[in-house]
Design brief:
The protein is built from 11 helices and 24 strands. A 6-stranded mixed beta sheet has the order 1-2-6-3-7-22, covered by helices on one side. Strands 9, 16, 17, 18, 19 and 20 form a 6-stranded antiparallel beta sheet that branches. Helix 1 (16-25) packs across helix 3. It is elongated and about 85 Å long. It has 497 residues and is an alpha+beta fold. The protein has helices at residues 16-25, 36-49, 125-139, 161-164, 238-246, 280-299, 322-334, 381-397, 418-431, 446-453, 477-494, and strands spanning 52-55, 61-65, 77-82, 104-108, 114-118, 148-153, 175-178, 186-191, 193-207, 213-220, 225-226, 253-259, 265-266, 270-276, 305-310, 318-320, 338-342, 350-364, 367-378, 401-408, 436-440, 457-460, 465-466, 474-476.
Length: 497
């Protein structure tokens, strides 16, 4: 393996059992909807460790772990995480997520704290670290615990289809610890629900008139991030910036427009090929400078670039009409993006948001098919529906065909949870400070699991992870050590019955 393809040796880190499992996971490709290899890997680990394991038709795996000696009478605790990962990479990075391992790097932040990240791609600490914490808890002989079930779900990132396939008979435990949170001083007891929306158009493409200018507009250098966990930070989205730039042109005709890659990630890059009257290139270059400066001032992301270059004539033989182009750009500006409302009773919690996730275009015959994908999140069903109605009406006015998919429920907070009381007490005793008890705007599987399986006593916690769903993803080594210590203490307390 060449030096640029090498990975760090994560097994040197502590806790060794957790990092050894994660080091193995980084070598097994596991993009959403292509998880057969990681499932076989997990089943092989269970067999090696002597645990019974079952995989259902949806790819969910349940591993049964006997209790520590003397703790057999304790109720079953379910440790839950998901096996798939978001696959994002920086431009110019060679990575086949279906076949290549993740190239890991051990580094230090500016404050001197040690982190693990990937070399130009997502790391998969979301939710690989949670899975590995569960595996380590089950296999480390020094961990005291009652009976455990390890529930590893499939396809969480692109539809939560694994969790949706669960039933009351999928596992026995009714006390669940989800290990998919990303702040090590917080206990989560609720999350938002969500729904996908697609707006689609088929535009007639016409021969481009002689003498028009054709140019390529590209947006790059954005931070991107998680469309739930980072949406409140006001990060720039490439899909909005390219529209803002194009709207400053006149009589434009779109040849193609594409941006973003994942429904649950803030778009980091976008590109469009357009043509227009004489002077279009200089007009859009001026627009790019203005919009780029505005975006940097708005988001404090210094790396934002909006470039306008001349396109080849062969790339611009046919284009969408001026009127249809204006209609499409108006719709892309009209649909909401970002925070749409804060929770009225929980400080600093986003209640409702919408992310313009992806824009894709492709030519079929003499038509350009354009599709815009969005993910709407809310902890309020009525507010979520209001946002969806707003998107529908914008699409209706713009002549789009609208469709919805992947509706999933939120997780209603239960402040009287017995599991919460235990976890809060253990945290305070262990670290000398009370944890933050909160809900999260990102989507966790807890609400779906509770809906599909029945009444569950559920909590979520995990180590510090930042930049999830983007190539900036990183996990703090000391935080993994902290959560490992905490998980062991919680399991020991729960083992008492």
């Amino acid at each position: 393996m060449s030096a640029d393809r090498a990975s760090a040796d994560l097994t040197q880190l502590e806790p060794k059992s957790v990092w050894t499992f994660f080091d193995q996971m980084t070598k097994v490709p596991r993009p959403s909807k292509n998880e057969e290899r990681i499932q076989h890997h997990i089943l092989g680990l269970a067999e090696t460790l002597g645990f019974g394991a079952q995989r259902d038709d949806a790819g969910n795996i349940v591993i049964s772990v006997p209790a520590s000696k003397g703790c057999e009478s304790a109720p079953i605790t379910v440790l839950q995480g998901h096996l798939d990962m978001v696959c994002e990479k920086n431009t110019g990075v060679e990575q086949d997520f279906n076949n290549d391992p993740i190239r890991t790097v051990i580094a230090k932040e500016s404050d001197g704290l040690q982190i693990v990240r990937a070399n130009g791609t997502t790391l998969g600490a979301d939710n690989g670290i949670g899975v590995c914490l569960a595996l380590a808890a089950a296999s480390d002989p020094d961990v005291v615990h009652g009976p455990l079930e390890l529930l590893f779900t499939s396809d969480e990132e692109e539809g939560m289809t694994g969790a949706k396939a669960l039933s009351p008979n999928s596992f026995e435990g009714r006390r669940l610890i989800n290990l998919d949170s990303e702040e090590d001083d917080a206990l989560y007891i609720g999350c938002a629900g969500g729904r996908d929306t697609n707006l689609a158009w088929n535009f007639a493409m016409l021969p481009v008139a002689v003498g028009v200018e054709c140019c390529r507009v590209s947006v790059s250098g954005l931070r991107g991030g998680h469309s739930g966990g980072d949406i409140h930070e006001g990060r720039a989205t490439a899909n909005r910036l390219i529209v803002r730039t194009l709207l400053r042109g006149s009589d434009l005709q779109i040849v193609s427009i594409d941006g973003g890659s994942k429904r649950n990630a803030i778009a980091r890059e976008a590109i469009a090929v357009v043509c227009g009257p004489t002077g279009t290139t200089s007009t859009l270059k001026a627009a790019a400078r203005t919009v780029g400066a505005e975006a940097i001032a708005e988001s404090f992301e210094d790396g934002i670039r909006i470039d306008v270059t001349q396109a080849r004539a062969d790339d611009c033989k046919n284009a969408v009409s001026v009127d249809d182009t204006a209609r499409l750009l108006a719709a892309l500006m009209g649909v909401p993006h970002g925070v749409m409302g804060m929770h009225p009773k929980i400080p600093l919690l986003v209640q409702t948001s919408n992310n313009i996730s992806t824009i894709t275009s492709g030519v079929s015959g003499n038509q350009l098919h354009v599709e815009v994908g969005m993910l709407t999140r809310s902890s309020s069903d009525s507010r979520k529906q209001e946002a969806l109605d707003q998107i529908d009406k914008v699409g209706e006015l713009a002549g789009a065909k609208t469709s919805h998919d992947n509706d999933y429920p939120g997780w209603e907070p239960n402040p009287d949870s017995e599991l919460l009381r235990t976890c809060s007490r253990v945290y305070t005793e262990l670290f000398g400070a009370e944890p933050t008890v909160a809900a999260i705007h990102a989507g966790l599987e807890c609400g779906i699991i509770g809906e599909r399986v029945g009444k569950m006593d559920t909590i979520s916690f995990g180590p510090r992870i930042e930049g999830a769903h983007s190539p900036d993803e990183r996990v703090w080594v000391e935080s993994v050590r902290k959560i490992w210590k905490y998980l062991k203490a919680v399991l020991a307390e729960l083992s008492k019955g």
